[in-house]
Amino acid sequence: MMSVPAPPLLALRGVCKRFGAVEVLKDVDLEIHAGQVVALLGDNGAGKSTLVKVISGVAPAERGVIEWEGRAVHIRRPHDARDLGIATVYQDLALCLNLDVVGNLFLGREIRRYGFLDEMAMESRTIDLLGRLTRAVPELRAPVVSLSSGQRQTVAIARSLLGDPRVLLLDEPTAALGFEQTTEVLDLVDTLRDRGMGVLLISHNLGDVKALADRAAVLRLGRNNGFFNVNTASQEQIIASVTGATENVPRRGTSYEARW
Known about the structure:
Pfam families: ABC_tran. This is ATP-binding cassette domain-containing protein. InterPro entries: AAA+_ATPase, ABC_carbohydrate_import_ATPase, ABC_transporter-like_ATP-bd, P-loop_NTPase. By secondary structure, the protein is of the alpha/beta class. It folds into two domains: 10-85 and 165-259, 3-Layer(aba) Sandwich (Rossmann fold), CATH 3.40.50; 97-164, no CATH class. Helix content is 32%, strand content 25%. Helix 5 runs parallel beside helix 6.
């Protein structure tokens, strides 16, 4: 008897988003499975950041269906996404540079005991989170402004994991990093995948995508323009889809698995 494959953690079916008269996303499909890294690719203005905002509840979709583990859900606010188990790390990281690592992780979510901040509990939780992500644990009480760009990215990702999410959205996590720092972040994402998380990685760096991602989804002018198995697709095929040299808009009603 054949086993039924598990549904994706997160699936988008025919999602549309409009800002005024401009339709930014048009019938976009996407799937993120547990233990997989999906790269989201596209030129500037392709709709990548808008899609992340739709998933994270910052800019809700106007049409289409969003499914969580096979059931339709509504994501209207960031709280809705967080309650489902979706966390987002934006490109600007949104860290307070004057605060230390512990202060940044628990800003707005401080642990209190008898009405006072429980610094020991927050520090212990910070050590646990960073220890599971990387060997290079930064000085916990050093202000974030003193950390390297790679360490700041690690702090931002650790903060997103406080609620034990199952899907993590990463917006250009290596864009401003050098080679060694990029390697650290990619290793960190690999660790998250090994722990069974689904990761959506927005990147312009095809080297990072080929090294890390399992699947790639291309957006062009707000539409799907290709789905690729990164292990078998050539870099040239993916670039052609991004630039529009190959128009590969999936027909409505085709199965997502077949397009992969």
